[in-house]
Write a structure and sequence with these properties.
Layout lengths: L1 H7 L7 H22 L19 H6 L2 H13 L9 E4 L5 E3 L12 E3 L2
Antiparallel strand pairs: 1-2, 1-3
């Protein structure tokens, strides 16, 4: 990124406002590349934890601008955390109950968590 900044200003010294304008332009280009990664174009590729946001080029071209903006917003709001559901299972592995604090289990049931 440092090299791109120097190329953009032709290796000259700039004022702070000029440097901020260049930084703003570079960040804007990165956001555009991120948006293009939604449909498989551009310099970026979606990581596995963001793969659910990918749409094909055919679908992308058929979407209205509002729908494209909505998909881009959903990508930006996603932190890429894996959503793991916690389950508890009975010792004979026949009963699987989601771990809900409000759910009551048989007090004599031996419960172990599965990873």
């Amino acid at each position: 990124m440092n090299h791109q900044l120097k190329l953009k200003q032709d290796w000259r010294k700039l004022t702070v406002s000029g440097l901020l304008d260049n930084l703003h332009d570079l960040v804007r280009l990165q956001f555009l590349d991120l948006r293009r990664s939604l449909h498989g174009e551009g310099d970026y590729v979606l990581a596995q934890s963001f793969a659910q946001h990918h749409v094909t080029c055919q679908v992308w071209t058929s979407l209205a601008q509002d729908s494209k903006d909505n998909l881009h917003h959903k990508l930006l709001c996603d932190y890429g955390r894996k959503r793991r559901l916690k389950f508890k299972s009975q010792t004979d592995n026949e009963l699987i109950v989601s771990s809900n604090k409000n759910a009551s289990l048989d007090p004599q049931l031996v419960v172990r968590t599965s990873d």
